[in-house]
Specification:
The structure holds two protein chains of two kinds.
Chain A (H helix, E strand, L loop, with lengths): L1 H12 L3 H17 L7 E3 L2 E3 L1 H8 L1 H17 L6 H17 L4 E2 L6 H25 L4 H19 L5 E3 L2 H7 L9 H19 L2 H10 L1 H7 L3 H26 L2 E2 L8 H11 L11 H20 L7 H16 L1 H35 L1
Parallel strand pairs in A: 3-4
Antiparallel strand pairs in A: 1-2, 4-5
Helix pairs in contact in A: 2-14, 3-14, 4-9, 4-10, 4-12, 4-13, 4-14, 5-6, 5-7, 5-12, 6-7, 6-12, 8-12, 10-11, 10-12, 13-14, 13-15
Chain B lengths: L1 H36 L8 H26 L7 H17 L5 H26 L3 H19 L4 E2 L3 H7 L3 E8 L5 E6 L1 H19 L1 H11 L1 H6 L4 H27 L1 E2 L7 H11 L11 H21 L5 H31 L1
Antiparallel strand pairs in B: 1-4, 2-3
The chains are: A mainly alpha, B mainly alpha.
């Protein structure tokens, strides 16, 4: 009995328990709502179904969530410019591929050149944020606010205010599927990014450094870590990942739409980090938690859309979820809960004492 | 020792007034440059100057609210969607539900205060980061706007249009090309906006509430030790900010006479930019509403310079504004670090 209790406690106190529970709750609701939820069929040579749709559509969010997790862990703030950086990367990529025209049926420049240029631009965006946050000590959200607004303007500047279409099979493949492979390509991008990030953070000391800087920047400087450099690096990585997400998203619609690529995705990425059980004030982080969080959000979005909620009303529900999560995470609420637990425990001990006393008195009487 | 502390005090005073002086000088320089470059396009016309106030009356009020929360060290990025929600609700109430214009005013203010109460509670009493709270508020407001209506509702209520088109003529004016005298005019919204600035400037400078705001923004711990009720004051600041967002939203509505989902998109950015350009420190403790007024005038001047120029596209407004914001944020960071170094040296 006691053993069972302790294993249960072990499971519930695991840091991934809440994120997985959230995902399960969303999936459970779906099973009750849509009977054919887990049905997977093959349509036009591609896997098709709700589950596949969720995993596929969440790819960009997963990639963004990794970057956002690192930024949050190292600086205790969030990068709200990721959506805009996605738009910029997509604009650069498509504009180079089309050679400046608004629509093209063949690559004007090699694909690898366009992708590299887009990634370099997104790294520069990340570095810009990084300098403001790490070097000039500006609050992360305010520093990234600059690119948050300027980004879409810059993307429009690059595409001359138009939507640039790249109607080439290879480019479309980035967002749909390669040849006869039945699994959508974005899923591969997400998996590869997660694996690389996981290996880099767990097989090298970088993950430890990021946590250390996030917990106490000046203390880790005294230990000999260059906290400025590590913070800067996380913003650069975040920018790079936003660039990759931008290219994937642009491959999906084989165009660069400056106004709509990555719109409101920064909110989802922050939400993914929070849902993953990470503190938004920095410090220890769980990469896998954020990835699960990202899938949960996409599951939630797909569910709401399946329930015929119009897409422009989605933010209301997401905002409510965010507020509930941050309230649950807030130090005041946690203190309240531990105080309650203590009180409960105290009550329990006093009642057991009372019962014992009563028994003793009764025993004496007998 | 004495002299050192005196010097230090003067230096810190200088840095905050320095930012205000930079702002006013920048505005004057930009406007005069505009007058010289676009003189034949009517930039020198006094009406053009008054138009800056007319088209930005709502933003001035919203920017003042933003300044209050920024002085406490917080931020509110929900104001743009609160404005959209206010416009949509007012339009919906008057056009679809047949309510009168006075009820629409009350609804607008109630929406603003509601946002202020909820966000203030979460920030002040649950210690949640203001940015996250207002980010959620921003998405909530925008989503609610589209729940009310996804179509544009234009306002045709006669009382409302009467307010919106009531011109107050100025004692000065210009002669147009045909030689007919045209008196310059403003709308009542301008007077409301300037009154808000005046009242808040007095409140910030001469009341206990105003001084408490600066104390909290300067150092929350010492404000607490001084015996200030930090949570309550913060809450009041957010409620006042919400009220001003509601009022500003209504002034915005008087200007546009319509409600639609995409309305006031990015307004929160304009309000923050105005406050920052006006010398309000993002880290709290420093800022004036007069500075914010000039910040709004600068953002307004950029917009009208770019629209008067005619060939530049609209996205240049965003890019220039962000560049200017970047410049001021970096300037503030440099001043802050110089101050820190100065303190360490003394």
């Amino acid at each position: 009995m006691l053993n069972q209790n302790s294993t249960l406690k072990k499971i519930t106190s695991h840091k991934l328990f809440m994120p997985i529970l959230c995902l399960c709750v969303v999936l459970l609701v779906n099973i009750l709502w849509t009977p054919n939820f887990f049905k997977i069929t093959i349509k036009n040579g591609v896997l098709y179904g709700y589950i596949i749709d969720i995993i596929n559509r969440a790819s960009e969010l997963v990639i963004l969530a990794i970057g956002m997790t690192l930024v949050t862990a190292s600086s205790g703030g969030q990068d709200i410019s990721v959506g805009a950086v996605m738009a910029v990367a997509a604009a650069v990529c498509c504009q180079i591929l089309s050679g400046g025209a608004t629509s093209t049926n063949s690559f004007q420049n090699p694909l690898i050149l366009a992708v590299l240029a887009a990634l370099i631009v997104s790294v520069i965006c990340g570095a810009f944020n990084g300098v403001l946050v790490a070097k000039l000590h500006i609050q992360p959200m305010v520093a990234t606010l600059i690119l948050f607004t300027a980004g879409r303007g810059i993307a429009q500047l690059i595409t001359n205010g138009q939507i640039t279409y790249v109607r080439v099979g290879v480019y479309k493949a980035i967002g749909s599927h390669i040849g006869s492979c039945p699994i959508p390509t974005p899923i591969f991008f997400a998996i590869i990014t997660v694996i690389i990030a996981y290996l880099v953070l767990n097989k090298t000391a970088l993950g430890l450094y990021v946590e250390s800087v996030g917990v106490n920047g000046s203390a880790s400087r005294l230990v000999g870590l260059n906290s400025t450099k590590i913070k800067f690096l996380t913003y650069v990585i975040c920018g790079l990942l936003a660039g990759i997400a931008g290219i994937v998203n642009s491959g999906r619609i084989y165009s660069a739409d400056a106004n709509n690529i990555g719109l409101n995705l920064e909110m989802d990425a922050i939400l993914a980090v929070a849902l993953g059980g990470n503190l938004l004030s920095g410090g220890k982080f769980s990469l896998i938690g954020s990835v699960i969080g990202a899938y949960t959000i996409q599951a939630l979005t797909t569910t709401l859309l399946a329930m015929k909620v119009p897409s422009d009303q989605l933010p209301v529900y997401k905002a409510i979820v965010v507020i509930i999560i941050v309230i649950l995470q807030s130090p005041v609420f946690r203190k309240y809960m531990t105080a309650r637990k203590k009180k409960k425990l105290q009550n329990k001990t006093t009642t057991t004492k009372a019962v014992k006393n009563k028994e003793m008195i009764e025993g004496e009487q007998v | 020792m004495m002299s050192a502390s005196v010097v230090k005090q003067r230096k810190s005073l200088n840095s905050s007034t320095f930012l205000l002086v930079v702002t006013i000088a920048l505005f004057a320089a930009m406007y005069i440059a505009g007058m010289i470059i676009f003189s034949e396009k009517g930039f020198a016309n006094p009406q053009m100057f008054l138009n800056l106030f007319i088209s930005n009356a709502g933003l001035i009020v919203i920017g003042c609210g933003m300044t209050l929360v920024m002085i406490t060290g917080g931020i509110d990025i929900s104001v743009g969607s609160v404005t959209a929600l206010v416009c949509m609700s007012a339009a919906y109430a008057m056009e679809k539900k047949g309510m009168n214009a006075y009820t629409a005013v009350l609804i607008s203010l109630a929406i603003g205060i509601g946002f202020g109460l909820v966000q203030g509670y979460l920030v002040a009493f649950l210690d949640i980061q203001p940015f996250i709270v207002s980010l959620a508020g921003m998405f909530f407001g925008r989503g609610m706007t589209s729940i009310i209506s996804t179509d544009m509702i234009s306002i045709k209520n006669t009382t409302f249009l009467g307010w919106a088109n009531f011109r107050i003529y100025m004692p000065f004016g210009t002669y147009n090309r045909r030689g007919i005298y045209q008196a310059a005019y403003i709308y009542p919204t301008v007077i409301i906006a300037l009154l808000v600035v005046l009242i808040l400037a007095i409140v910030l400078k001469y009341t206990k509430f105003g001084r408490s705001l600066y104390a909290i923004g300067g150092n929350q711990q010492s404000a607490l030790m001084m015996g200030l009720n930090v949570r309550r004051t913060k809450m009041e600041a957010y409620v006042l900010d919400g009220f001003l967002a509601g009022l500003g939203g209504f002034l915005f509505c008087l200007n546009s006479c319509a409600g639609f989902v995409e309305q006031a998109k990015g307004l929160e950015m304009d309000a923050i930019a105005a406050a920052v350009i006006g010398g309000t420190l993002l880290s709290g403790g420093v800022g004036t509403v007069v500075g914010t007024l000039f910040g709004v005038l600068i953002t307004g001047t950029i917009t009208s310079l770019i629209t008067t120029q005619g060939t530049l596209s609209s996205w240049w407004v965003r890019i220039t504004l962000s560049a200017l914001l970047c410049f001021f944020i970096v300037l503030q960071a440099i001043i802050a670090s110089a101050k820190k170094k100065g303190q360490a040296a003394s």
